[in-house]
Every structure is written in structure tokens, then in C-alpha cells.
Amino acid sequence: MDGRQSVRAQRSRCLRKGRVIFNNGFSSVDATVRNLSGVGAGLEGENFSIAPDEFDLLIFDTSGKFEKRHARKAWNKARFMGVKFIADDRHSKALATA
Fold first, then answer.
1. pTM to 2 decimals?
2. What is the total count of domains within the chain?
3. Residue ranges making up the domain that contains 49
4. Domain for residue 1, yes or no?
5. 57 contacts: CB under 8 Å, gap ≥ 6
6. Distance between CA atoms of residues 5 and 54, nearest Å
7. pLDDT tens across 11-47, in order?
């Protein structure tokens, strides 16, 4: 059984545009969001190997609006990557000091 089959939360299949954002917003990798749950997502794309272990993930809907989630690589195999959504302490700290 590979990493893609060991998903714990039920994910819904989808086909949405996504973007992996890192390097303080100066670098990105386009992705297709293949499945999605409240705790993570499955992505398909190229060059995931250049992305760090933690990054921001933009998930676009059909109207062009997007949701931004902070994520961590759970697994990575060829053109596929599984991610787990995590709390973004950087944003939490910024809000707490505002």
C-alpha cells in the first residue's frame, strides 16, 4: 500500500486549479487539486521536489476566487503529492500582536 492509499480522512474528488507558494511568495509551482478534505489534499503537478516541506497552498474555485491554506508535505511520489493542512503560526502570532 503506498501513501496515497493510506488517507485517514475521507476526501472528495475534485479537479481544481492550485498553486504551491513558498520562498516568501517569490516562488510557486502550479498544481491540480485532485481530491480535498478538511485536513488535507492530493495534488498533481510538476516540480514538487523544489517546494519546501511547508508552504502555502492556494485552491481556486470555478469563479477564480481562492482559499489559502498553510500545508505540509505528507508524501511525494513522481507527479503526485499529498499534503496535510496545518495551523499557520506566523499568521496566528501576527494577529495576536495586532
1. 0.78
2. 1
3. 9-97
4. no
5. 18, 19, 20, 21, 31, 41, 43, 68, 69, 70, 71, 83, 85
6. 22
7. 789 999 999 999 999 999 999 999 999 999 999 999 9
